[in-house]
Amino acid sequence: MSLFTVGTKPRLSLAQIINMSVGFFGIQFAFGLQNANVSRIFQTLGESIDNIPILWIAAPLTGLIVQPIIGHWSDKTWHKKWGRRRPFFMIGAICASAALLIFPNVTEIWMAAIMLWMLDASINVSMEPFRAFVGDMLPDSQRTTGFAMQSFFIGIGAVISSLLPYLLTEFGVANEAPRGVIPDSIKISFLAGAAVYMAAIFYTVFTTREYSPEEMKSFGEVAEESQKLSIKTPASSFNRKGLIWTIIGLALSAVLYLYNQSATTPLEKELYVLTGGITVFGLCQLLAGALVKYGKLNGFAEVMDDLNFLPPTMKKLAVVQFFSWFALFAMWIYTTPALSQHIAKTTDPTSTAYNDMGNWVGVLFAFYNGFAALFAFLLPVLAKKFSRPTAHLISLFAGGIGLISLYFFTDKNMLIISMAGIGLAWCSILAMPYAMLTKALPAHKMGVYMGIFNFFIVIPQILAATILGMLTKHIFNGDAIMTIVVGGCSMIIAGLLTLRIKDK
Questions:
Q1: In terms of DSSP H, where are the helices of 263-409?
Q2: Which of 111-120, 188-197, 453-462 has the lowest mean pLDDT?
Q3: Domain chopping of the chain, boundaries
Q4: What's the CATH architecture for 14-222+309-500?
């Protein structure tokens, strides 16, 4: 029998909210190491700057595949001892820690690409249930605080992980190595990341108790029938959509192939990722239609069905997320090469100037994450004074201006000012969309919709990885700082689009 009043979810103490958020410290520690160092690793192993975006596609593709699956499974999971979301926290932590141990010891580009795929997939296994975790555990009145607390730990984790190579270098650890060899400063940082990831995740697992299905029912959030498979889309609708998307994807792929066969200046091969993705989506719709037609209902068919019934608030937030994450991905890919070229005046990844700027980018990333951690305490105040959409708009404008200002600052120390605006945007991106979204989602589908919401983080990343290389090479003549400016404009557009969202 539940100990709680029917129809209410109790408010948690600050200590309880902290305990359930500590795991994100470990997740972001690994994510921070990945963001600040992977482009550097690729270039160290001999890859050119033009090809780095296509290598980064591994990261968002894993999220596109993994998050909806993990979300669906965690919605349907319940273990008497380990709960609903926590088993996935642990599985992701173990796999990500193993990837962190292996990654800096690779010797070939293809090995680094595989390890990026493995690391990002493992991080996603842990991260997706953490978003649903806040929706499960907190009433709506505390969800902004819950996601802001995650932002705080994300900021702290990213500060330390971004600074780590720089600090190790200051303590005498080698920051340079022969061509094709990862420096010791990076190797030791990744080793530390593996240990921190495990410790932080297991702290949350062992200090937090999840609500049982019976308790969730007592809060009026999960009905008995909601645990059963429910598919509303008829097979004919699946088949019609699937056929349209498949034809579009195949046609675009054929046009791209024929053009590249005859053109003197072929289009970038990264475009095949987009056309292929459209084709795969169409085939998935056709497969779902076949499963429904022959009564073979399963989780895959239900996830495809959920895609057809997105809540209106989620659709509006999806567009905001698209432009926000396009900007972030531009920053993560190009900050090191852009600032090395723009300020240090070098494009040689083996040079002292390049590696020094690489370390300084780690410091800058630490600053923007540090600012994000501090702004985590400001964000609930802004949301309460204005509204969650307005607070998000202010934050995204600050981030867009921060990114554009990288072009105008020629003193590397002045770039810290830019990081303040980026930090406010980053804090809000990690909290506000999810605080608004969880209010609009049915509780029994919190995990799967959070996974689907990740599509609108992943798709702009794939698009960025596909076209940013072309922009940098053909439009900006290799001047990567202009690509960062495009990212700033994209973030400002995201801010304007929050005006469409009404959140009481």
A1: 271-293, 299-307, 312-342, 352-385, 388-405
A2: 453-462
A3: 14-222+309-500, 235-305
A4: Up-down Bundle (1.20)
